[in-house]
């Protein structure tokens, strides 16, 4: 499992690094104003559907059934089931896309209630969202094909194909800025184009894996009914994080222009460890837990869950404390160029710190949720999802006026913590999750090591490199890189001193992979 965890994490890390480059270009050429706000709303809508129907609920319903069919009946029935699922998903999303394209002005009025017709943000958001909306058909179909590859334990291409999204995005921003002189529209078209590229790569890969899929007439077969019974509740149970972020965006439209952009870039930095560690843990954990559940291997399931939490938090905790300590330096170094001012970077850093408070909870939700899905339970996560969605909305409405752009991310962080606690308690009562003494002891020590690292690197930043946010170009990037290297060495030393792991052990595992 660790091998697959690191494989998915490595590809996801590459995708996130390229995504940061893409976002740096967006910040430099669009800044944090009306055009950026409209573009982020246009991207948020298809991206939300992608997470819900593609990576989230659909995979949670599809992967266990596909794995069971493949293990029990063989490749031919599993391939027929996957083809039926692909056809039903495509037909469903085509209907949603047509509906969205026709009624887009009303859709934007709902998800961006603060966009008035003055300043052109509303009209631009409608135009851009109509361009990006077909992306959801392509990327959700790609996510299903990736689920087939994951069920076959071929994790590399399933994770690697998503790198193309950011490659196409980078090219689109540059072409829009220098060739077409219309960055925002060309970048929007790049989103839809990337959907074709990702689906094509995955479709080709699954054929090479000996599991070619084809479109058939959509039918409600017994298999499809079984999947839909799992899918319906899971739409919220698996997608609470994305729905909470969408609520953040809706509330941010009520704040001054630029707030959506500050939240977006803060969330993108927060998504770097969340996407790498959370997605890797959730993707590789679900098939393993499903197998343990099918064979009624309770102890093995406990051990697998504990080790997944250990692996995830070993890197998540220092990331959380590091973001809290160096948020201004990170945001100014990554995005403080061109039209994205130093003031924009500082406001975005404040939002980043609020998001970072919930980073461990966001990751653990990804780790704990497969414990329900592996046992065929999507109803409990949906109940928790409804509660945390309501809690997030209430917190947003309470905090956005006094805390402005810090309110929505803080509300999401607090809601994620509650979500994580409820998931963990219920799994513990069902004897699906049972933290052992080793896990608890290591978590305490890892938290202490992360806190020591954050305190030390913050002291170094304030004494050795004061005013880093006002530095320019390569000097600022080099200084931040040096701070991160120092932080890494301090964390490894603290882990060794506290008896968690020696630097040789940690680096050896990564080097072997």
TrEMBL record:
CDD domains: MATE_MurJ_like. Signal peptide: none annotated. GO terms for cellular component: plasma membrane. The chain crosses the membrane at residues 89-112, 132-152, 159-180, 186-206, 245-265, 271-290, 311-335, 355-374, 386-404, 410-428, 449-471, 477-503. GO terms for biological process: cell wall organization; lipid translocation; peptidoglycan biosynthetic process; regulation of cell shape. The keyword Cell wall biogenesis/degradation applies. The keyword Ligase does not apply. GO terms for molecular function: lipid-linked peptidoglycan transporter activity. Keywords: Cell inner membrane, Cell membrane, Cell shape, Cell wall biogenesis/degradation, Membrane, Peptidoglycan synthesis, Transmembrane, Transmembrane helix, Transport. Pathway: Cell wall biogenesis; peptidoglycan biosynthesis. It is a multi-pass membrane protein. It is found in: Cell inner membrane; Cell membrane. Belongs to the MurJ/MviN family. PANTHER family: LIPID II FLIPPASE MURJ. Involved in peptidoglycan biosynthesis. Transports lipid-linked peptidoglycan precursors from the inner to the outer leaflet of the cytoplasmic membrane. This is Probable lipid II flippase MurJ. The gene is murJ.
């Amino acid at each position: 499992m660790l091998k697959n965890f690191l494989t998915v994490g490595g590809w996801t890390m590459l995708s996130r690094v390229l995504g940061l480059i893409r976002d740096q270009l967006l910040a430099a050429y669009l800044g944090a104003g009306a055009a950026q706000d409209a573009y982020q709303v246009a991207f948020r809508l298809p991206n939300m559907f992608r997470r819900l129907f593609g990576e989230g609920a659909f995979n949670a319903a599809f992967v266990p059934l596909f794995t069971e069919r493949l293990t029990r009946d063989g490749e031919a029935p599993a391939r027929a089931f996957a083809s039926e699922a692909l056809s039903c998903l495509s037909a469903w999303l085509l209907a949603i896309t047509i509906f969205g394209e026709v009624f887009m002005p009303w859709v934007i009025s709902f998800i961006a209630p603060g966009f008035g017709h003055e300043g052109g943000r509303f009209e631009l958001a409608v135009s851009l969202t109509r361009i990006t909306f077909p992306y959801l058909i392509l990327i959700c179909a790609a996510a299903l094909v990736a689920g087939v590859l994951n069920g076959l334990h071929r994790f590399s291409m399933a994770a690697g194909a998503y790198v193309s999204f950011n490659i196409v995005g980078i090219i689109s921003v540059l072409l829009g800025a220098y060739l077409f002189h219309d960055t925002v529209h060309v970048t929007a078209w790049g989103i839809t184009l990337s959907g074709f590229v990702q689906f094509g790569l995955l479709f080709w890969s699954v054929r090479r894996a000996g599991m070619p899929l084809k479109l058939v007439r959509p039918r409600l077969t017994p298999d499809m009914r079984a999947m839909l019974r799992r899918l319906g509740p899971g739409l919220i149970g698996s997608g609470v994080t994305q729905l909470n972020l969408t609520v953040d965006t809706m509330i941010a439209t009520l704040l001054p222009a630029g707030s959506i952009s500050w939240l977006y870039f803060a969330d993108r930095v927060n998504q770097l460890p969340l996407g790498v560690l959370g997605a890797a843990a959730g993707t590789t954990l679900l098939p393993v837990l499903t197998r343990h559940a099918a064979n009624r291997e309770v102890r093995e399931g406990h051990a697998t869950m504990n080790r997944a939490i250990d692996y995830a938090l070993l890197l998540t905790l220092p990331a959380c404390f590091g973001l809290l300590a160096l948020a201004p330096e990170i945001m100014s170094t990554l995005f403080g160029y061109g039209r994205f001012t130093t003031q924009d970077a500082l406001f975005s850093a404040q939002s980043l710190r609020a998001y970072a408070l919930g980073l461990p909870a966001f990751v653990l939700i990804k780790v704990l949720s497969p414990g329900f899905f592996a046992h065929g339970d999507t109803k409990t996560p949906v109940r928790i999802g409804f509660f945390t969605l309501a809690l997030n909305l209430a917190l947003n409405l309470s905090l956005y006026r006094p805390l402005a752009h810090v309110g929505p991310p803080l509300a999401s962080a607090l809601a994620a913590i509650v979500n994580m606690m409820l998931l963990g308690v219920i799994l513990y009562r069902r004897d699906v999750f049972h933290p052992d003494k080793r896990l608890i002891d290591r978590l305490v020590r890892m938290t202490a090591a992360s806190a020591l690292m954050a305190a030390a690197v913050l002291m170094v930043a304030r004494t050795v490199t004061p005013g880093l946010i006002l530095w320019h170009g390569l000097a600022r990037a080099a200084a931040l890189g040096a701070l991160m290297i120092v932080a890494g060495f301090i964390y490894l030393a603290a882990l060794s001193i506290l008896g968690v792991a020696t630097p040789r052990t940690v680096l050896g595992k990564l080097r072997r992979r």
